[in-house]
Design a protein that fits this description.
The protein has 381 residues and is α+β, with helices and mostly antiparallel strands. The chain is 52% helix and 15% strand. It folds into three domains: 114 residues, Acyl-CoA dehydrogenase/oxidase, N-terminal domain (Butyryl-Coa Dehydrogenase, subunit A, domain 1); 108 residues, Beta Barrel (Butyryl-CoA Dehydrogenase, subunit A, domain 2); 148 residues, Butyryl-CoA Dehydrogenase, subunit A, domain 3. The chain has a four-stranded mixed β-sheet with strand order 1-4-5-8, with helices on one face. Strands 2-3-7-6 form a four-stranded antiparallel β-sheet, with helices on one face. Bound molecules: flavin-adenine dinucleotide.
Length: 381
């Protein structure tokens, strides 16, 4: 199998690598320390066409493939976890949902501004009382004349405070079951849509996640996304792609931790030798590099399967599981190689460690990935 990037992908990677080194990575510490939203980088990414990278050109996107999306998010992850997750939630969750299930009219109205980077998107699944168990969702959407009326609350909605367009998963039938939920396109300026201040988090300080309350939010009947009662299936399909996005960010975070550890180990001396000359340190670096390499291969293979239109749910879950746990482990070892300085905010590895920690939780925890993989294994056997 040949996974060499084609010319377009190679040029994209080169351009993004340079952009991230010049514009994103140098700001990562400031973004982390202040919790400021990285507007400048996000605007630039919009101008570069990155915020609609895999959206068809007729809907304002760049029409690129899934490998390119993985390249984009890996490079961002290498530079700044916050900027990476903002872009991932926008592109792989909200924008992807409309791209996959929207009508032509919905795409004209909502997808074009998202793909052109004129507004950001957010996806609201999780609620204060439920996350993994999506069938436990209590936010309701009821039909009243020519409108849907949405009531309830969402939790942890990434980008909700800066987004113009959100996709909300709501209950349209009272009974628990796979046909009880539907997705809706809800603009954030709709009366009754209230966003709380950003949650105070362990890491990813520049990527804002919010509790949102929905107080009789009225949207036209046309704002139903896809089919009524198909919201759970549609959401799972969106999350399949999201796993590749989070996996790519994690590969980038792991790569950044590896690069930082290698640079430090070349400089720091103990017992009259640079750290890299000690075999125990070389072994750590070798293990870290091997894990980043394997995660990257698995991730790009899943992205390739998606691009080919082949089933990729199991491979995407495997790639997400391995890449996210790899990023945490590699960042942990990078701190170890830095010794005491690894625990200091003077060096990037403690930030990378905190940022990487989310990746095994968001868009399906590691436990959920193991459930998805386990079920597929049994079904296929
Ligand atoms: C920074 C951040 C950003 C986020 N962004 C978004 C967003 O944009 N949109 C959105 O909708 N959500 C978002 N989330 C929410 C995230 O997707 C959920 O936190 C995640 O899905 C887990 O749900 P939960 O927190 O309710 O945990 P729970 O579902 O309560 O699970 C708790 C623990 O139990 C485990 N568990 C649950 N059920 C089982 C089972 N059957 N078997 C074994 N183990 C199980 C879980 O894996 C987990 O370890 C975000 C979260 C964070 C922290």
């Amino acid at each position: 199998m040949d996974f060499t990037f084609n010319e377009e992908q190679r040029l994209l990677q080169e351009a993004l690598h340079n952009f991230v080194d010049k514009e994103v990575k140098p700001k990562a510490r400031h973004v982390d320390e202040t919790g400021e939203f990285p507007w400048e980088s996000i605007h630039r990414l919009g101008e570069m066409g990155m915020l609609g990278l895999n959206v068809p050109e007729k809907y304002g996107g760049a029409g690129a493939d899934e490998i390119s999306v993985a390249i984009f998010l890996e490079e961002l992850g290498r530079g700044c976890g916050s900027t990476g997750l903002i872009s991932e939630a926008h592109l792989c969750l909200a924008t992807a949902a409309i791209n996959m299930f929207g009508s032509d009219e919905q795409k004209q109205r909502y997808l074009i501004p998202l793909a052109q980077g004129n507004t950001l998107g957010a996806l609201g699944l999780t609620e204060p009382g439920t996350g993994t168990d999506l069938q436990g969702i209590r936010t309701t959407a009821r039909r009243e004349g020519s409108e849907w009326v949405i009531s309830g609350s969402k939790m942890w909605m990434t980008n909700a405070g800066v987004a113009g367009t959100t996709i909300l998963l709501c209950r349209t039938r009272p009974e628990r079951g796979s046909h009880s939920l539907s997705q809706f396109i809800v603009p954030t300026d709709t009366p009754g849509f209230h966003v709380d201040p950003p949650e105070k988090k362990m890491g990813l300080h520049g990527c804002w996640s919010h509790a949102v309350s929905l107080d009789d939010v009225r949207v036209p009947l046309d704002n139903l996304l896809g089919e009524e009662g198909k919201g759970l299936h549609q959401t799972l399909a969106v999350l399949d792609g999201g796993r590749i996005g989070i996996g790519a960010l994690s590969v980038g975070l792991g790569q950044a931790a590896l690069e930082a550890a290698l640079a430090y180990a070349k400089e720091r001396k103990t017992f009259g030798q640079p750290l890299v000359n000690h075999q125990a340190i070389q072994f750590k670096l070798a293990d870290m590099a091997t894990k980043v390499y394997v995660a990257r291969r698995a991730l790009y293979h899943a992205a390739w399967l998606k691009e080919q239109g082949q089933p990729f749910t199991k491979e995407g879950a495997m790639a997400k599981l391995f890449a996210t746990e790899m990023a945490e482990e590699v960042a942990y070892q990078a701190i170890q190689i830095h010794g005491g300085y690894g625990y200091s905010q003077e060096y990037p590895v403690e930030r990378i460690y905190r940022d990487a920690r989310l990746m095994t939780i968001g868009e399906g925890t590691s436990e959920v990935q193991r459930m998805v993989i386990g079920r597929r294994l049994i079904r296929e056997s």
